[in-house]
Write a structure and sequence with these properties.
Structural class: alpha/beta
Number of strands: 13
Strand order of the largest sheet: 1-9-8-5-4-2-3-12
Bound molecules: pyridoxal-5'-phosphate
Strand content: 5-15%
Distance between the termini: 25 Å
Length: 382
């Protein structure tokens, strides 16, 4: 195919497996569209079983799951929360909402995850929680992080937005810390448009989580017949997604293996075929530690510097390929300066984030397109 005839290749398209509309229709036919109906239950049970986790609360976003986790962790004004600066804004926002000060620490250049060896030095008497972000669905060094947290009496909230159906030493990401937060945004592996989930193992949090998610009421208990009327019990908000969204997600969870397999195929193709560029020293490819089983959430490469990345992005766009970069480090953003501080030296966060480029990666991307993208990159003048 000549370049002119080739349709543009977007950076992302929400996954579509084929059964979504049928399930949405079924949800509509059931005549109850608000949250916590049949499809919400199906999604929750699916995750309980597949991720071996006791509690699953479907939410309207991962941002909201993080907000819930922060509230359940008793974050109060002035408390400090440790996290990487190389992450999406929600990781920090959810804690800032409750008055926390964010303490950013540097990342490891190999995985782009928080450097577990820098965490302990950032702990002060005000520290309340550690928030590891499993970048690209590659697990952080959770054994070390949990050991530090337990020794200092800190909560661990895993931002597993990108880590759904990925594992660390055989355990599902999100189920290792005190709380785990998933995203089902359309850019993630499994989607419902906008959505997420809060998961945790300790049943002692169940009641508070239910009340928080149901506008501060004990409506969940009421529906189980445990109380004869529902009342305002505590602070709460509205974190329930509708059944239409849950129906879309359930179709995808059912096909999770298929989605996973396809994403792995794309990942492996990029990884194998871009290897010569790494051998020539032009790029760095993603690294996955032995303990981590990733979910092919994204494929990124790191080029020499910002200038090369800018050139590569426009070169790809000329070939109708849309790539993306992220994140502008939170500590150098206006809100990051207001709500947080960087502890220690920024050796890698800024430098590595400026080199990083994400390639198109989505379930319905054809292998022919993946080949074309790879060949186009191989022909770039690094
Ligand atoms: C996508 C993402 C979020 C936010 O997820 P939403 O469901 O859009 O709120 C949070 N953290 C990370 C690391 C993400 O990638």
């Amino acid at each position: 195919m000549s370049d002119e005839m080739r349709p543009r290749i977007p950076f992302n398209k929400p996954a579509f497996v084929g059964t979504e509309l049928q399930y949405i229709k079924d949800a509509v036919d059931r005549g109850m569209l608000c949250g916590d109906g049949e499809y919400t239950k199906k999604c929750s049970s699916w995750m309980q079983k597949h991720f071996d986790v006791s509690q699953v609360f479907l939410t309207t976003s991962c941002t909201h799951a993080l907000e819930m986790a922060a509230y359940l962790s008793d974050i109060k004004p002035g408390d400090e929360v440790i996290m990487p600066s190389f992450t999406f804004v929600s990781t920090a926002d959810a804690f800032v909402l409750w008055g926390a000060k964010i303490v950013f620490v540097d990342i490891r250049p190999d995985t782009m995850n928080i450097d577990e060896n820098l965490i302990e030095d950032a702990i002060t008497p005000r520290t309340k929680a550690i928030v590891p972000v499993h970048y690209a669905g590659v697990g952080c060094e959770m054994d070390t992080i949990m050991e530090i947290a337990r020794r200092h009496g800190l909560k661990v909230v895993e931002d597993a937005a990108q880590g759904v159906n990925a594992f660390y030493k055989g355990r599902a990401l999100g189920t290792i810390g005190d709380f785990g937060c998933y995203s089902f945004h359309e850019t993630k592996n499994y989607t419902m448009g906008e959505g997420g989930a809060l998961v945790f193992q300790d049943d002692a949090y169940q009641e508070r989580a239910e009340i928080l998610r149901e506008k501060g009421t004990d409506r969940s208990k009421f529906f189980r017949g445990q109380v004869d009327k529902y009342r305002w019990i505590d602070y709460g908000s509205s974190y329930l997604p509708s059944e239409m969204n849950a129906a879309y997600l359930y179709a995808q969870l059912e096909k999770s293996e298929e989605i996973n397999r396809k994403r792995r195929k794309i990942y492996d193709f990029y990884h194998e075929n871009l290897k010569p560029l790494e051998e020539k020293g032009y790029i760095k490819r993603p690294f996955v530690p032995e303990e981590a089983e990733h979910n092919a959430h994204m494929y990124y490469l790191k080029v020499k510097d910002l200038e090369t990345r800018t050139r590569l992005i426009s070169y790809l766009r000329e070939h109708k390929i849309y790539s993306a970069f992220h994140y502008i480090p939170l500590h150098s953003s206006p809100a990051g300066q207001k709500f947080g501080r960087f502890h220690g030296e920024d050796r890698y966060t800024t430098k590595e984030s400026e080199r990083l480029l994400r390639l198109p990666m989505f379930y319905n991307l054809s292998m022919e397109d993946v080949e074309y993208i790879t060949d186009t990159i191989l022909a770039f003048d690094f």
